[in-house]
Amino acid sequence: MYSKCGKIDIARKVFDGMDRRDIVSCNAMIDGYGIHGLGKEALLLFNKMKGVGLEPDAVTFICLLSSCSHSGLVTEGKQLFNYMIQGPNIVPKMDHYICMVDLLGRSGLLDEACKFIDEMPFEPDVHVWGALLAACRIYKNVALGEEVSKKIQMLEPEGTGNFVLLSNMYSTVSRWDDAANVRIMQRDQGFKKSAGCSWVEINGITHAFFGGDRSHPQSEQINKIIDELLVEMTR
């Protein structure tokens, strides 16, 4: 919670104050470092974790690879991935490959990311291609981005994320007509970008909240508390 609210120092104090640290708490702390681009700190914690005999699990490597991705630690990310696949306990899953494509893509290694995808032991899903498409937008590789977009469209013809990424890529290179045409195509095919949604369970009752939604009977009180929390977080 503290990590996601931007209070990484407090999160570490809570972590250090725990009587017993298990793999779940370590993963949460590593993930927190990754969220804030503190990849080296995440790696230090990983090494300390191994030093006290805690064995990493599949989630640990997802958190670590994501941390490397957000910190530009390409070499370290590759080493972690190789360490994982050579070990006896963890079989890499799609999420691990997505993290690696994201790592390579964010660092501008688009050709290497394509080669990595080609060598995957199973067929890449829309999330793998989506990570590559996002990198194409960042590095303005429109030709590759268009190819990737077609693959996503074939795998998920009713998805909206592909339209958004493709339109944003065209906008990045000032191809405004192409960006507008993608939006028109999205509209004509009846697709809408889904509103963000969050859930919380209180006393066994699940409450759903959508972006900009004020239909909840306690929306006024909820927004007041959110405003108070935002003030507290910025102190």
From TrEMBL:
InterPro entries: E2_motif, E_motif, PPR_At4g14850-like_plant, PPR_rpt, TPR-like_helical_dom_sf. Transmembrane segments: none annotated. Gene3D superfamilies: Tetratricopeptide repeat domain. The keyword Membrane does not apply. One of its GO terms (molecular function) is mRNA binding. The keyword Disulfide bond does not apply. PPR repeats lie at residues 22-56. It holds the Pfam family PPR. PROSITE patterns: PPR. One of its GO terms (biological process) is RNA modification. Keywords: Repeat. NCBIfam families: PPR. Belongs to the PPR family. PCMP-H subfamily. This is Pentatricopeptide repeat-containing protein.
